[in-house]
Amino acid sequence: MKIKKAAVIGAGVMGAAIAAQLANAGIPVLLLDIVLPDKPDRNFLAKAGIERALKARPAAFMDADRAKLIEVGNLEDDLKKLKDCDWVLEAIIEKLDAKKDLWAKVEAVAKKTAIISSNSSGIPMKLQIEGRSDDFARRFVGAHFFNPPRYLHLLELIPTDKTDPEVLKTLSEFGEKVLGKGVVIANDVPGFIANRIGVYGIVRAMQHMEKYGLTPAEVDQLTGPVSGRANSATFRTADLSGLDIISHVATDMDKATPADEDFTLTDSFKAMVEKGILGDKSGSGFYKKTKDEKGKTKILNLNLKTGEYEDQGKVKVAAVEAVKGKPLAERVQALYTAEGKEGDFMRASMNDGFWYAAKMAGNVSNRIQDIDNALKWGFGWEQGPFETMDSLGVQQVIRNLEAEGRKLPPLLQAMKDSGRDKFYDGSQTVTPAGEPTEYKAPYFIISDLKKDASKVVKKRAGASIVDIGDGVLLVEWHAKMNALGEDQLRAVQDAHKLVQDMGYAGLVLGNQGDNFSAGANLPLILSQAQADEWDELDDAIKQFQQVTTSMRFSPHPTVSAPFNMALGGGCEFSIHADQIVASAELYMGLVEVGVGLIPAGGGTKEMLLRFTDQLHPGQQVGVGLLPAVQRAFELIGTAKVSTSALEARKLGFLRDHDTVVMNKNHVIEGAKRAVLAMAHDYIQPVPRTDIPVMGDAALGALKSALYGMHEGGYITDYDLVVSEQLGRVLSGGTGNNRTAKVSEQHLLDLEREAFLTLLGKKGTQQRIDHMLKTGKPLRN
After folding, report:
1. 708: how many CB neighbours lie within 10 A of its CB?
2. CATH number at 6-185
3. Which of 25, 119, 245, 596 could form a disulfide with 91 if both were Cys (CB 3.0 to 4.6 A apart)?
4. Is 137 exposed, middle or buried (0-12, 13-18, 19+ CB in 10 A)?
5. For residue 441, what pLDDT is reported?
6. What is the pTM of this model?
7. Which range (162-166, 425-429, 606-610, 673-677) has the least confidence?
8. Is the pLDDT of residue 766 over 70?
C-alpha cells in the first residue's frame, strides 16, 4: 500500500494545517469543504483555509510554494475526485452524526484501496464506522494530529478491532517517515492517550491550585521548563487550546470514565467559560495581552478571586528559583520534596499524574513507552510520567501514593510486589501488567544514544564518538546548546583519525540533543579578547578553520545531519561536509554579525565560492561577479536564518545533492546511508585555487551601497564597521582592480584577519557582552 495523494475533508484551522503538512512533505492534497450558499465562490471555505494557513504564525508551510500542491474543492462538486486519493482524512465538526453521514458519501466514491481516517480528538472510531461495509471498516483507522501539525510531533493512530494490520503498518510508516511524526498506537477509548492524561492533569492542577492558594502564574512557574515541561506550562497551554475545548473534553471524560478519575472542573473555570473567557481565541483567558502607553506588549494575569486582570510583574516562585540551573532530575526531585504550599501543590499534582498514567497503562495504550512518548510529543514534555517516576524512584512514589490513601493501579501494585524501582532498566521495560519485556526504541532511531552507551568508541566531556554500525562513526556533541569549544573540535579530529586508523567507511556529524549547534563558545572568545590573548585566539581560529574544512578535505566521506538550530559554526561545519542530510525543521544561518563578527570557520569563503560557481561561466569575470558577491554579502550581512530546510536550500546553505528528511529522528540513519553510498569509490577533494574575486571594484560597490543604507538610517554606525570588514573578505582583499583568482586558503586568511580585527574593537565586545546577558543583539 502506497500513499501518493491524499484528501483532507474540512478546511478549518486543523484541516488546512494538516493539508499544509502533507504539502510540506511533497504529497499532493485535495482539500474539500462544504459550499456556503451566500458565497458566489463554491470553493470559498477551502480557499480561505489555504489563505489562513499561509498567514499562520508560526508558519504552517515550510515554503509558501508548497501551497501549490493543494487542490481546493467542495463536497458537492468534487467528492468524486476522491477516487484518485490513497488516503482520505476528515477534520470536520466534532459531531458523530456529521461524521457518519460523511463516511456514507465517501464510501460511495473513494477507491477501494484507500485508507480512511478521522482526525477526531475524542469520538470513538468504532462508532464512526457503524453501518459501513466490512471492507470500509478494514481500511479505517483514526489519525489524530496535534495542533499545530507542523510543529507538534505527535500523531496518535487509533485502530478499531476491524482495522487491517497492514493498513495500520502503512499509515504508521507514512506518518513517521513521510510526514515526520512521532507515531503512537492508541486504543479506541475516550480521549485516546495524550488528551486523556493531559486534560486530566490540567483539571487536577486547577483543583490543587485553588486548594493550596496559588495563582495561575505561580503554577505555570512550577509546571513549566523547571519541571521539564513546555514553556506554556499548564494555564498558558489552556489558553492556547481554548478553555471551551478543555471544558468540552473534560465534561465528556467525566461522563465516560469511572468516578475515581475525577475530571470535575472548578467553579471558577466554569465561570470563565460561561463569561466567554476562552483563552487566546477570545482575547483573554488566564492571561491577557495588552499594550502600555509606549505600545509595548504587556501580559496581565487573571486574579481568580476578583475576576480582574492585573499587572503582577515578573512572578517569582521560591521553589523554582532554588533549583534553576540544576539538571532536570535534581530539579524534579527538589520540587517533589519541597516544603510549603508550593511543595504541597507539586506532590499532589505529580502524584495525580503518576497514579493516572499507571491506571491508564493497558487502557489507553498497550505500551508504557507510547504513553511517555504521547505526553512528550503532544505536550512538549522532556520526560513522560514513567520516566519521571524512574528518576524519583518508583518505590518512593508508591509509598507516597499509599500514604495519601490511594489504591494502587495494577501496574504499580505489580512494581511494588516485584520490588522493581525502574520502569526502564537498560534493555528492559515492563508491560502494563508489570512483567519485564524487551525495551524497543522507536524503530526510526538508528542508535538510541540516550539509553545505550555500549557503542561509544571515545568520549570527552562535551562530545562522544559512537560506532553506529556498518563501519560508520558518529561524532555526537553534547554540550549546552552544543556550543563549539575544544572538546567538540578535538572529537572531530579524533574521529577522522579513527576512521583512517581503524578502516571505518566514513563519518557522520550529528546528535540527539535539542539542537545541532548554536555556534561558537562566546564567553570563551570574549574572555580571551579582554585578556589580550591574541596569539592564542589566532591559533584557535586557525584550528577551527582546519577542523571545519576537514569535513571536506579528508580521505573518507563525511555527512552532516543538522536539525533545529545550526547556527554560526554549526552551519560552517555542515556546509563543508560532503553531503548534508537535514531535518526539515532546520534553522540554519551564519549569524555572526549579530555579535559584531563575521563567519571565520570558512563560512564566508564557502558562500562566496558557491554563489560564484552558480554564475554562468561568462559572468565569472569582472563586474559579472558582482551578483554573487552581493548575494553572499546580503546573506551573511543580514544574518539570514532559514525557517526550514526548504528555505535553507533557497538561501544556498543546502545544495542540489543535499537531502531533506521530514522526521528529525531519521537524519542520523539517512546520513549513515549517505556515507555508505559514497564510501566505495570516494575520491578525496583538494582545496580550490581558482576562485575569481573582484578586489577593489567589489569593495567599492559594497561601500557605496552601505553608505546609502547608513545615511538612510537602515544600519547603525557599528553595522557599517562590521559590514566593511565582511565586504573586504568577499572582495578577495584589496589591491586588485580586475578579476583575480585566489585560493580557499587566501579567503580563510582574510576571514581570520577580519574576525580578529573586529574582536579587538569595543563595539564587538559590547555586542558579545549584551548577547550573553540578554540573549538579544545590540544595535550599537
Report:
1. 11
2. 3.40.50.720
3. 119
4. buried
5. 58
6. 0.92
7. 425-429
8. yes
